[in-house]
Design a protein that fits this description.
The protein has about 140 residues and is mainly alpha-helical. Helices cover about 60% and strands about 10% of the residues. The protein is built from 3 helices and 3 strands. It is flat.
């Protein structure tokens, strides 16, 4: 259902005589202010989003049809089974990406530990607990 606009709810708070689009309008029942430029920008953005959604629906709809046509077993799966397979796949991808990232992070941590050790040794610095790292965190990095 569309909102019903009541003219009495709107007030011209600050009029711009040169460009009415820049005039400030106040909607009293919501207590917000806007200009016609704001409204027009919102319409442009919504039209753009609508076109993008239409394109995505067409593309994804065609992809779904192609997948179903070429993988007949999908027609025998329930919505719940399809959802479970999708969730498994999505999480498997996250585990793979995060696992690779974690390997890189651990390599970098080892490199930084070696760098710190070298700097402490070379300059005779003494490591302090300025960062107050929890012991569990230190143990995790020293694996």
């Amino acid at each position: 259902m569309l909102n019903k606009f009541v003219p009495e709810d709107f007030e011209l708070k600050k009029e711009d005589k040169k460009d009415f689009h820049q005039s400030i309008i106040r909607r009293n029942n919501l207590s917000n202010e806007f200009t016609m430029v704001d409204v027009e920008h919102a319409v442009v953005e919504l039209e753009k989003l609508n076109k993008e959604a239409t394109s995505q629906i067409g593309l994804s709809g065609n992809m779904m049809k192609n997948i179903k046509d070429n993988n007949k077993f999908i027609n025998n799966l329930s919505e719940e089974q399809i959802h479970a397979v999708w969730m498994y796949f999505e999480n498997a991808q996250i585990v793979a990406v995060a696992g690779n990232k974690q390997k890189e992070i651990r390599k970098q941590l080892i490199t930084y530990k070696k760098l710190k050790d070298m700097i402490y040794h070379k300059f005779g610095f003494v490591e302090s607990n300025v960062l107050d790292k929890p012991k569990k965190l230190e143990e995790k990095y020293n694996r």
